[in-house]
């Protein structure tokens, strides 16, 4: 991700490693690396993002900070989740009412993230 250096003192380039644990910033002072104590829970993409409202759709969530007992709801209904790794969850989308559905991901430690209209049930 590129950023604008407004005053010449701040970073001109910001990158994150593939696991989301380290941030790299190139500043006028040189390279700065920040090691995070834990990877924050985040949603990258839900694939597919559209499917039948009848459910039983196999889907994949890519993101960050997933734990082995992470739970997922779509439209307020629990999905069957299989933990693949800290960046990938496989799930079976439940039967939903037609329309856009909110995705909520929760880790066992209480950290939660949501994305409105993440899935369109047709």
What value does the average pLDDT take? 87
What would you call the structural class? Answer: mainly beta
How would you sum up the global shape? Answer: elongated
Could you give the order of strands across the largest sheet?
5-12-11-7-8
The tally of helices reads 0
Q: Can you identify the CATH class of the largest domain?
A: Mainly Beta
Percent in helix = under 10%
Strand content: over 45%
Q: What string, H for helix and E for strand, traces the elements in order?
A: EEEEEEEEEEEE
What is the CATH homology-level superfamily of the largest domain? Immunoglobulins
Q: Report the count of strand segments.
A: 12
| Distance between the ends | 34 Å
Unreliable stretches (pLDDT < 50, length at least 5) are: none
CATH topology of the largest domain: Immunoglobulin-like
Radius of gyration: 18 Å
CATH architecture annotation of the largest domain: Sandwich
State the major sheet.
Answer: 5 strands, mixed
Number of domains: 2
Can you walk through the features of this model?
The structure is a single chain. A hairpin with a 2-residue loop joins strand 9 and strand 10. The protein has two domains: 37 residues, no CATH class; 80 residues, Sandwich (Immunoglobulin-like). It is 0% helix and 56% strand. The chain has 122 residues and is an all-beta fold. The protein contains no helices and twelve strands. The strands form three sheets. Strands 5-12-11-7-8 form a five-stranded mixed sheet, with no helix packed on it. Strands 4-6-10-9 form a four-stranded antiparallel sheet, with no helix packed on it.
């Amino acid at each position: 991700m590129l950023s604008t250096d407004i005053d010449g003192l701040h970073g001109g380039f910001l990158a994150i490693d593939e696991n989301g644990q380290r941030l790299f910033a190139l500043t006028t002072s040189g390279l700065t690396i920040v090691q995070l104590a834990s990877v924050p829970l985040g949603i990258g993409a839900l694939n597919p993002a559209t499917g039948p409202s009848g459910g039983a759709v196999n889907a994949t969530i890519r993101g960050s900070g997933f734990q082995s007992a992470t739970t997922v709801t779509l439209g307020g209904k629990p999905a069957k989740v299989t933990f693949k790794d800290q960046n990938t969850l496989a799930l079976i989308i439940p039967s939903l009412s037609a329309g856009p559905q909110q995705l909520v991901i929760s880790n066992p430690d209480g950290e939660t993230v949501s994305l409105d209209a993440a899935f369109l049930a047709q």
